[in-house]
Amino acid sequence: MQSGRAGHAVTKSEVDSFLAAAGPAFARRLLFSTTDRPSSGARRAIEDHNVVVFGRDALIRSPVDWAAFLANRPGIQWAQAPRPHQEVAIREVVSGLREILQTGMTASADRHVHKA
């Protein structure tokens, strides 16, 4: 789920859409968000449906070197071409990650990445 840019509050409608797309077949769902601000309705839906959330803070603290990833993305081989709405979501996620890198908040992530 692409949940908007930093500062955007994830809405219950967005979480409901994510849950509907995931369907009931999954025991656990992972939601990656470029914000740490779920609305109260979204927070309740996330808790009620066993959703694990990786928000902006988790992305920043992760051991992934986002600058290297964005600069040297391995070629993605799609089984089929992404649908138009998926292409938009992919572009927006990459844009959101770039925005995170440009905020200067990657200092803590850099420390974690360069320890290894």
Tell me what you see in this structure.
This protein has helices at 12-22, 40-48, 56-61, 66-71, 84-102, 107-115, and strands at 29-32, 51-54. It is mostly helical. The chain has one domain. It has a two-stranded parallel sheet with strand order 1-2. It starts with 11 loop residues before the first helix and ends with a helix.
Summarize the structure.
With 116 residues, the chain is mainly α. The protein has 6 helices and 2 strands. 52% of the residues lie in helices and 7% in strands.
In percent, how much strand structure appears in the residues? Answer: 5-15%
Based on helices, strands and strand pairing, what is the structural class? Answer: mainly alpha
- Average pLDDT, rounded to a whole number, is 76
How many β-strand stretches? 2
Write the layout of secondary structure elements.
Layout: H1 12-22, E1 29-32, H2 40-48, E2 51-54, H3 56-61, H4 66-71, H5 84-102, H6 107-115
What would the keywords be for this entry?
single chain, 116 residues, mainly alpha, two-stranded parallel sheet, 2 strands, globular, disordered C terminus
